[in-house]
Amino acid sequence: MYTTVPAVTEHLRLPPLLTTTLMVAVALVAGGGSFLGLAAIRRAGPVATMRGAVLTAAAALVLIGLAPDEATVICAYILFGLAVGALDVGVNTRAAAIERAYGRSIFGSFYTAWSVGGVIAALLTAGAARLEWPVATGLSVQAGIVLLLAVCMRTHALPSSSAGPSDTPAQPPLGRRLWIRLIPFGLVLLVVYVVDSTVSAWSAVYLRQTLAASLTVAPLAYAAYQAGTVVGRAATDRLVRRFGAVAVVRTAALLVAGALAGMAAAPSWPFAVLAAGAVGLGSSVLAPLCLASAARLRPAASEAVLARLNLFNYVGVITGGAVSGLLGSTGQFRLAYAASAALAVLLLAAARHFTQQPPASARAERIPPFDRADSQPLG
Q1: What pLDDT is recorded for position 91?
Q2: Which residues of 345-363 are buried (b: 16+ CB within 10 A; e: fewer)?
Q3: 54, 78, 94, 102, 120 from 48: Cα distances, Å
Q4: Do the Cβ atoms of 171 and 193 come closer than 8 Å?
Q5: Gap between the Cα atoms of 365 and 163, Å rounded
Q6: In 5-106, where does DSSP find H-type helix?
Q7: Number of other CB atoms surrounding residue 163 within 10 Å
Q8: pLDDT at position 94, please?
Q9: What is the DSSP string of 292-307?
Q10: 144-153 contacts at long range (C-beta below 8 A, 24 or more positions apart)
Q11: pTM
């Protein structure tokens, strides 16, 4: 959806302020969608929630493409935001259950697929523009692919599943202390998405305006960032199994800070492109490990924990877009990347809170049977 925003804006001749407001609104509504997803998981489980969210997202894509006016497209984007929030918490809850069942790091693989999906969406949008398809046609093709994904979803029993949702006893309230324990992970997510917004939204403009790159070269920083993201997430699980989560997070934080500083000081566009790739390589590791460690704070209530943590995610998206947009609009791109580098250094303090998935044998010995269920509604 995000890759088609310029085409939708031109098609409906939306004012720039309205487009910006819509993107902020999608992030805000997605936070509420996380809690709708939580309610759905408690009633139907994570897989059914994901399927419903994907179907809703497909309907929203079609509605965005066919929207005849501003009011309709606003409603469609709000619907899409709700679907994204519910899908986030559904996917993360399912990933937490699978990781817990197998007793090894798996979150990185889920996020690799997410990154590859973003690359495919960008290529589809570029192809539709090249073929001069109407906006409605391009979005309908994307909606068709999303519908195919919903049809292919299946529920698979996990190795350690011994109870279903109906067999799970009611869990105690999460309480205020959990919010305190979530703060380190929330700050990590916030910084990660501030960095992501800064690089994704402004790297091409930075190369063009500050480093005098051509229009052909300007998008290469974003392409390098996305390539680094895919590679980093593909390697995350292996790195965690070999070196441990804490060491991986510390190394990733240092890499992100150094790479952002390199972007800020880049003398020419080739250096900036390489630095952007390094930023993607490091930052891509942090979000999945953050969610995996947070889910282990309360294994039997991981869906509720992740719904809370998702709020930091969307605050980071909004904050990153606003801060980088303010600095970028004044031409202070180097300052924007230097400020992001300083924020990345702060992640080192949160690294000690990250935990590693225990081996399956050790986990089976100390986790009660109801915690090993495929889905853990809270009653």
Answers
A1: 87
A2: bebeebbebbbbbbeeeeb
A3: 10, 21, 11, 21, 25
A4: no
A5: 17
A6: 5-12, 16-44, 46-66, 70-102
A7: 16
A8: 86
A9: HHHHTTSGGGHHHHHH
A10: 144/58, 146/54, 146/57, 146/58, 146/61, 147/54, 147/55, 147/58, 149/54, 150/51, 150/54, 150/55, 150/58, 153/47, 153/50, 153/51, 153/54
A11: 0.70
Structure tokens at 276: 């952007």
Q: Assess contact for 45 and 86: CB atoms under 8 A.
A: no
- Describe the crossing of helices 302-329 and 333-350 by its angle, rounded to 10 degrees: 150
Q: What is the pLDDT of residues 304-348, one digit of tens each?
A: 888 888 777 777 777 766 676 666 656 678 988 998 999 999 999
Give the 3-state secondary structure of residue 196.
helix
| Among the listed residues 97, 20, 28, 54, the one whose alpha carbon sits nearest the alpha carbon of residue 306 | 97
Q: Is 170 helix (H, G, I), strand (E, B) or coil?
A: coil
The pLDDT-based confidence of 179 (bands split at 50, 70, 90) is: confident
Residue burial 229-265, b: 16+ Cβ < 10 Å; e: rest? bbbbbbbbbebbeeeebbebbbebbbbbbbbbbbbbe
Token reading at 370 = 């109801």
Residues 6+ apart with CB under 8 A from 92: 110, 291, 295, 302, 306, 310
133: three-class secondary structure by DSSP = coil
Quickly list H helices, 103-175.
107-130, 135-152
CB-facing half-sphere around the CA of 82: CA atoms within 13 A: 15
CA dist 167 and 373 (Å) reads: 9
CA distances from 177 to 138, 174, 298 (A): 47, 8, 12
Placement of tokens 């109407």 in the chain? 134
* Predicted pLDDT at 166: 36
